[in-house]
Amino acid sequence: MLEARLEQSSVLKKVVDAIKDLVQDCNFDCNDSGIQLQAMDNSHVALVAMHLKTEGFALYRCDRNIALGINLVSLQKVLRAAQNEDVMTLKAEDSPDALSLVFENSENDRISEYDLKLMDIDQEHLGIPETEYGATVKMPSAEFQRICRDLSLLSESVAIEATKEGIKFSCTGDIGKGAVTLRQNPNVEKPELGTTIELQEPVALTFSLKYLVNFCKASGLSNTVTISLSNEVPLLIEYEMEHGYVRFYLAPKIGD
Amino acid sequence: KISQAKIKAYYTAI
To answer: Is the ipTM of this complex over 0.90?
Structure first.
């Protein structure tokens, strides 16, 4: 059986908020390394991978591998009943029909108990090899979100170019064009506010802004975001948490 | 013309 306790409900609430607009139904795979998820969006253009590691739980017990088939819209309805500071306990049998969720406030005088019906989800998994990326950019997640939002008002696509000069986001649309260039600017006192660029080789790729704006809903998970790019492979956007991560992979747009 | 590639084209199904 599974029994997993999070000190703060906000962790799972933020993860679900981050991915619910990209995927609807997905398996939460529970095993002795924690709770993992991998799912593609309906159009098979983007992929999300999430890992909440056992170290992030106040209590974690999972005797055998359990797949929890969850509709994220339904899960979000139940999670709305949890206050951010509530302790959350997830429980499921070995072949569960339902996931039990218990929310307890810090004063220990309120216990909320919910059951979420589970589904059988036959999900395709992709093997993603360890990749040496041509360019890796670490920057404030809020700034990345702002750039994606601003450019999405002008165009459907953004060209991302990483060179030794910096990383340039540019787009062209019906009303005009726009570009934002970030230069390497490490902040010694507050590393989460700095921008670092590791460049092995110049990279130039084009991506759909609709997806990037969607990924930015994970900005609440981390002050920083890591963007990894290589020519002709999907972009990797990673939000790292204290004990886990949410990663998004996005296929580039290609010239015919 | 630019077209959208699929993520499945890059990674192997397991």
So the answer is: yes
